[in-house]
Amino acid sequence: MLISQLTLLFLSQDSCSRVSPVWKSVRAPPLFWKHHARLAALLPPATPKASLLSGLHSHLILKAQSIDLMKLKNHKNHHTDLYQDNICVLRRSQTFQMWITLSRPFNRHTDKLHLHLKTGPIPEVGKRTHVIVPLVEELKGNCWEAAVVKENDKRIKLSVNSPGTAVIGRYRLTVETTCPNGLAIYTCNPSDDIYMLFNPWSKDDSVFLDDEEERQEYVLNDVGRIYNGRVNQIGARTWNYGQFDSGILATCLYILEKSKTLCSGWGDPVNVVRIVSAMVNSNDDAGVLVGKWSGDYTGGTCPTFWNGSVEILQQYYASKGSPVKYGQCWVFGGVTTTVLRCLGIPTRTVTNFNSAHDTDVSLTIDVYVDENMDTITNKNQDSIWNFHVWNDCWMARPDLPPGNGGWQAVDATPQETSNGIYCCGPAPLTAIRNGQVYLKYDCPFVFAEVNSDRILWQRNADGTYSKIFTEKKVVGCNISTKAVGSDERNDITHMYKYAEGSEEERVAVETACSYGSKPDTYESPTAKDVTMKVVMEGEGPKLGSDAELIVKFINHSCENRNVSLNSQLAVMYYTGVHKATFQKEKRDLDLLPNKVKLALTYDKYKDLLVDQGALMLTLLGRVKETQQVLATQFGFLLRTPDLIIKPIGKPVVGQKMTVEISFINPLPEELKDVVLNVEGIGLLPVQKITYGDIRSNGRVTITKDFTPTLAGAKKFVASLHCSQLTQVHGVADIYVEA
Ligand SMILES: *[C@@H]1O[C@H](CO)[C@@H](O)[C@H](O)[C@H]1NC(C)=O
Ligand SMILES: *[C@@H]1O[C@H](CO)[C@@H](O)[C@H](O)[C@H]1NC(C)=O
Ligand SMILES: *[C@@H]1O[C@H](CO)[C@@H](O)[C@H](O)[C@H]1NC(C)=O
Ligand SMILES: *[C@@H]1O[C@H](CO)[C@@H](O)[C@H](O)[C@H]1NC(C)=O
User: Fold this and answer.
1) pLDDT, mean of residues 320-334
2) Which end of the chain has fewer CB atoms < 10 Å from its terminal CB, N or C?
3) Nearest 5°: CA angle at 38, between 35 and 42?
4) How many CB atoms lie within 10 A of CB 609?
5) What binding details are noted for the cofactor (predicted)?
6) pTM across the whole model
7) Is residue 289 over pLDDT 90?
8) What residue ranges define each of the domains in the chain, with the CATH number in brackets?
9) What's the gap in Å between 307 CA and the centre of ligand 1?
10) Is 423 a catalytic residue?
11) Is 43 helix (H, G, I), strand (E, B) or coil?
12) 671-680 β-sheet, strand order
């Protein structure tokens, strides 16, 4: 013990020229000099003391001499082996490894080594663009940390973790070793930088997508199909996305840099998608593509001539950011898919037929005619395109109410400005479907593209206009994207809107319009005298059993009120991403029983459950007599079962007693690697009980013996942990006699 302390002191004195403050503050134990003398006496007489010290010198300094980023192995694990350039591409929130060759074997107890990762022009620790990765004993996950997992003479192998929120981009890595007194610092850089990307394979990343086939399609497929033509004459062309081609990743990061946004914001996919939607068009920021629709494409490439995104991005990069001529919607959409897939955000190219372009945020397509039914040319700004192409990308939306995670529409074609810039989205498909156009970003515009009514307005003698005709079904149909794993067309219209003509669809249109620039387009309800509320009894429904939700209506009028009500129940991820709708009901209610019970049957949702058992109830209805719209969403959690704790025997200080902890697995699946933590002040210290697996719906009882150490009212607390189930707790009051 003392000898090793001695070594340490030699090291601090010898490897750096000055005696450090650390050295001074270490009080030499009284026996120190005696032992020192004894050590000197042990040395062979021929070795003079000075030469021993200088011999130690070269051994003692710890320097990293080379770093092997193990690209082959890391790339395979990180699904980045397709990137063509010989660069190190990793995904955040996933362990990667490296071998470091040192000047001498590593000493876990005394040596100091850590990693620095820096990105962007001015790396700052506070902005997470300069990360100092500490060396830890045991990796915890979802944070920056590194651990030595193997030692081989002078080489050590590190496992490194990063959080699911890490800034993406190009990082310069430095391995830093410090001599124990902290005065001398040695650094070493690998020949490669690290490109850190989003990670749809990791639950801790908000672009997490839980289906392998979908990840293969929406992240890794580099060829796709883009639909065009017109309703009932749908055409398609193959598009080469080429997101892994040589130089494309560098171009994507160049595009982000050119946006002049701070790279500290590049950890958030909402931001990144918005930046990309602004940068793919050249308007206002010298982005990638110049849009042109005039038919005269001299001086550039005709938009229909492009076969894919690679030539466009290469041309942009080679010309140091001079915008490429020319693009139209499918070119903007194709390039956006390339850039986002390249950065690791699941993305697809989407075509909408009869796509409306609403210029005045009325959320209707307005056609103006004069007294003779002739169109008034200068007043007709809105248009309906045969087709329009944009993108859907997948992410959680922690910035919005739950239920809005999942697919988000993003449109890079320059059409209308958003906060002064030509960009559009991300707009949640759920919000568009429900007409909740007040949610970020640009829902009114996307809503109008897919679900606006075409309204014919006729000029009156006094110059005002009257609505004379409404077409409800013209806009937004056959919304198409390439199917997962095949070249078939997948119709996703239902994700953007309820069935044409259904009550829900009408409610959505009117809700959306009421937030637009002409809120009076639709007849306002004659009265708004009914209120609707969802109530949950007690602590809410329990995971694993049937339950009921109650919808309460209050009739504030003095007349009879009937309601038609549509309800939908969906399973959600804890991130707010919608997983699947499992129950849809439509009912006509006369209000007299002013409470409606919605049954929540465990059998119907048990196979869909994920994470923490989060569910969402969406209600859309209308009062028949007044046309009042009733709409609400209600998110709730299924309560996890408690641990039942039963003390056995009489609790007395110093006498052994037992508790019985019982638990029923509520899930239809086996719980893996279950661990219990138990503790109680005065009863027993914190302890970990490794239980193993619990079969589906299985009941287990665990007994724990301990000897109370303190008298009085005590609490025995237990919690159960496993990857499928969290938040399972139990507590028992135990009165311990002296
Ligand atoms: C697209 O492919 C065709 C056929 O291979 C080729 O002739 C054309 O030059 C390509 N377009 C561009 C812009 O390279
Ligand atoms: C396209 O949409 C129209 C209008 O909704 C519908 O009648 C038609 O069946 C759709 N065509 C296809 C191929 O889905
Ligand atoms: C609503 O109130 C009116 C007047 O009190 C009553 O006639 C009608 O039955 C009420 N409807 C319901 C559902 O309570
Ligand atoms: C409202 O409900 C009552 C009772 O069921 C029924 O007689 C009446 O026709 C309904 N009115 C409407 C407008 O549906």
Assistant:
1) 94
2) N
3) 140
4) 23
5) Binds 1 Ca(2+) ion per subunit.
6) 0.75
7) yes
8) 2-58 (no CATH), 64-197 (2.60.40.10), 212-513 (3.90.260.10), 602-636 (no CATH), 644-736 (2.60.40.10)
9) 6
10) no
11) coil
12) 684-694, 671-680, 712-722, 725-736
Instruction: State the greatest distance between any 2 C-alpha atoms of the chain, in Å, as a whole number.
Output: 120
| pLDDT, tens only, 623-665 | 888 888 777 778 787 877 889 999 998 899 999 999 999 998 8
The CA distance from 676 to 686, in Å, is: 10
- Which of the 8 DSSP states describes residue 558? S
Tell me whether residue 399 is one of the annotated catalytic residues. no
Q: Which two tokens stand for residue 509?
A: 């249109």
Q: Please give the single-letter amino acid code of residue 144.
A: W
* Contact in structure between 333 and 388 (CB atoms under 8 Å): no
Catalytic one of 75, 79, 116, 388: 388
Report the amino acid identity of residue 448.
Answer: A
Q: Using CA positions, which residue lies closest to atom 12 of ligand 3?
A: 592
Residue type for 559, please? E
- For residue 310, the CA-to-ligand 1 centroid distance in Å is 12
Give the active site residue among 358, 392, 411, 611: 411
Report residues whose beta carbon is within 6 angstroms of any ligand 3 atom. Answer: 555, 557-561, 591-592, 594
**Percent of the chain having pLDDT more than 70?**
86
Active-site annotation holds for 411: yes
pLDDT at 173 > cutoff 70: yes
- Counting from 1 in the atom list of ligand 2, the atom nearest the Cα of 232 is 11
Cα–Cα distance measured from residue 174 to residue 133, given in angstroms and rounded to the nearest whole number: 10
Residue 295 has pLDDT above 80, yes or no: no
Distance, CA of 402 to CA of 576 (rounded, Å): 4
β-pair partners for 554: 531
* CB atoms closer than 10 angstroms to residue 214: 16
Residues 597-602, mean pLDDT to the nearest whole number: 81
| End-to-end Cα distance, the chain | 43
- Please answer whether residues 98 and 70 qualify as being in contact, where contact means their C-beta atoms are separated by less than 8 angstroms: yes
Extract the annotated binding site.
Answer: 451, 453, 500, 505
Q: What is the distance between the alpha carbons of residues 562 and 531, in angstroms, rounded to a whole number?
A: 12
Cβ-based burial of 208 (10 A; exposed 0-12, middle 13-18, buried ≥19): buried
Ligand 1 site residues (CB inside 6 A) read 301, 305-307, 311
691-722 residue pLDDT tens: 999 998 889 999 999 999 999 999 999 999 88
| Residue type at 207 in one-letter notation | V
Asked if the bond preceding 574 is cis, omega within 30° of 0, the reply is no
**pLDDT of res. 604:** 80
Structure-token match 């959600």, residue found? 572
* 359 contacts 516 by C-beta, under 8 angstroms: no
